[in-house]
Structure to design on (147 residues):
């Protein structure tokens, strides 16, 4: 069985610059942010509350919390609003909510750059709509990022 964090970070790596990033990690155990994600960060901020996402980050990740939420809109809006110009948001949700998540991302002056299916065993499954999970990568227009 593959580690879903590794699969998602492999997918995400295709969308990131090679320079160190200002990263916000939102998860139920913020101190347990994946080591690989920590290695990308020049500055890593962690929180367990999507609504606490403030600032201007190059990368915002929420790979656990969205799965259990009934109302995704407030969380997705807060996470997208924490992304600076040229920055990326990485969200993991159930596949049946792909269109909903994509519409919230688009509503925040961002676009869905890619989405990937993630199987029940953590394996990548391409862009299959019948995948148990979907990894959505959104990008804010503009030039930004770290020097």
């Amino acid at each position: 069985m593959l580690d879903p964090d590794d699969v998602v970070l492999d997918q995400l790596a295709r969308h990131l610059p090679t320079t160190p990033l200002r990263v916000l990690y939102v998860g139920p155990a913020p101190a347990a942010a994946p080591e690989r994600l920590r290695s990308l960060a020049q500055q890593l901020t962690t929180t367990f509350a999507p609504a606490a996402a403030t600032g201007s980050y190059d990368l915002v990740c929420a790979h656990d919390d969205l799965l259990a939420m009934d109302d995704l809109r407030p969380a997705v809006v807060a996470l997208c609003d924490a992304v600076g110009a040229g920055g990326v948001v990485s969200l993991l949700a159930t596949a049946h909510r792909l269109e909903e998540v994509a519409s919230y991302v688009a509503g925040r002056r961002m676009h869905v750059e890619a989405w990937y299916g993630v199987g029940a065993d953590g394996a990548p499954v391409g862009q299959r709509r019948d995948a148990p999970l979907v990894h959505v990568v959104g990008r804010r227009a503009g030039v930004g990022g770290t020097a």
